[in-house]
Amino acid sequence: MPSGSSLVKDALASYVAGRVKAERLVIAVAAAYYGGDGGRGTAAALRPLIDVIDRASPGIVELGTAQSGAGFAIRLVERPFPKQYEAELRRAAELYLVGATGRGMMDGGRVTPGSEPGLLARLVAAVRRLFTASA
């Protein structure tokens, strides 16, 4: 069974390639981020995506009482993702994928434009790999 981290990478790659809608990506990213099933360092790497998601659709998670009595139960609230934020979400997804290749993970998983030489070249290479891998 694939790990939460690989499920998120698959969802991100599918979103960038146009095979998955923003709402499905939001669910996958939020589940990994808030559910903690992504593995070590995943929450920090997903933070730029969560920032976009929170700005576009605040309140993506709902807190409730846990059945066990301790803590909170976290439930994802499905709602349409606003179109005006899709370009920003796509950029954050592309940057995550560039960082997931092992190059470009800086500042706790955040890659900032200009923080590394050749960022655009690596981004183009990552997008090309997506299309050749799916062919």
Please tell me what the overall shape is. globular
Instruction: Provide the residue-averaged pLDDT.
Output: 75
Beta-strand percentage range: 5-15%
Structural class, by secondary structure, is mainly alpha
Describe the protein's topology:
Blueprint: H1 4-16, H2 22-35, H3 42-56, E1 61-65, E2 72-76, H4 86-100, H5 119-134
Antiparallel strand pairs: 1-2
Helix pairs in contact: 1-2, 1-4, 2-3, 3-4, 4-5
Could you give a quick summary of the protein structure above?
This protein has 135 residues and is mainly alpha-helical. Helices cover 54% and strands 7% of the residues.
Protein described:
- By secondary structure, the chain is mostly helical.
- It contains 5 helices and 2 strands, in the order H-H-H-E-E-H-H.
- The protein has helices at 4-16, 22-35, 42-56, 86-100, 119-134; strands spanning 61-65, 72-76.
- The chain has a two-stranded antiparallel sheet with strand order 1-2.
- A hairpin with a 6-residue loop joins strand 1 (61-65) and strand 2 (72-76).
- Helix 2 crosses helix 3 (42-56) and helix 4 (86-100) packs across helix 5 (119-134).
